[in-house]
Amino acid sequence: MGILEGEKVTKFFGGLAAVFDVDFDINEGEIVGLIGPNGAGKTTLFNLISGSLRTTEGEIRYQGKRISNLKPHQICRLGIARTFQSVKLFGNISVFDHVFLGSICGTSLKMRTMDAQRKAATLLDLVGLSKRKSDLAKNLPIAEQKRLEVARALSTEPQVLLLDEVMAGLTATELNSFKTLIHRIRNGGTTILLVEHVMQAIMAICDRIIVLHHGVKIAEGLPQEIAKNKRVIEVYLGTDAYAEH
Q1: Is the domain of 173 the same as that of 111?
Q2: CATH number of the domain within which 228 lies
Q3: pLDDT, mean of residues 117-122
């Protein structure tokens, strides 16, 4: 049994199925990639897992217990945290306070102020922002804003971390650094499910990959299997590209 499971997960917006009949099973300690063209349903699935949207049909389970349609703060306190495709920070709050407040308010455990401060300092060190702790979030470049959002998510002590395009728009150097960070987070005991369009990163860091297209799961497997999958190549590049391939 996986730490995070979905069975026939479906979400309709009016008559449009943004996610349809999707099964998934994420094992503890894995890094699993979720890929697909724009509009494939990836972020919608994240929103369903994290409670931002309610499922139309199907069931999502965390550690064997149904979490479908719980509220976001309830799911967070159970042990699932997320970042967002568009970074959502409080611009006029310091880097340190973002993570400190997450430590105080983001878990079901009561934490002393001193302990929360220590945890915030440790997480900022993990993501490489210790020297920026006094800066306002709005003054960080986008790569560091993404790191701050990861640190804030980690401050809630998740067992499962959902990362939504955290590597989009980064330089090659920033990308390599972020891949290293993701491995460190996994090695610290956190299971990771990530949406990403940077295929180089997906292929390098994921244990498995799930592919969505028009809300339907069309493939799942090891990175090398997905890279050779005829249906996936057609979806990304078109049937002519596969014929040339």
Answers
A1: no
A2: 3.40.50.300
A3: 94
Biggest CA-to-CA distance, the chain: 62
Cα distance between residue 240 and residue 80, in whole Å: 41
Residue 108 is predicted with a pLDDT of: 61
Which residues span the domain enclosing 126? 90-156
Half-sphere exposure at residue 236, Cβ-oriented, CA atoms within 13 angstroms = 19
Same domain? 97 vs 125: yes
pTM value is 0.91
**Could you give the C-alpha distances from 33 to 65, 116, 188, 206, in angstroms and in order?**
23, 31, 18, 6
Element (H, E) at 58: strand 57-62
In a domain, 52, yes or no: yes
Round to whole Å and give the CA distance between 77 and 162: 14
Contact 24, 5 (CB under 8 A): yes
CA distance 138 to 125: 19
Confidence bin at 123 (pLDDT 50/70/90): very high
Backbone phi, then psi, for 41, in 5-degree steps? 110, 10
238 — pLDDT class (breaks 50, 70, 90): low
My answer on whether 67 and 181 are in the same domain is yes
Q: How far is the C-alpha of 157 from the C-alpha of 232, rounded, in Å?
A: 35
Question: Minimal CA–CA distance to 159: which of 79, 75, 73?
Answer: 79
What phi and psi, each to the nearest 5 degrees, are found at residue 98?
A: -55, -45
Per the structure, the count of domains in the chain is 2
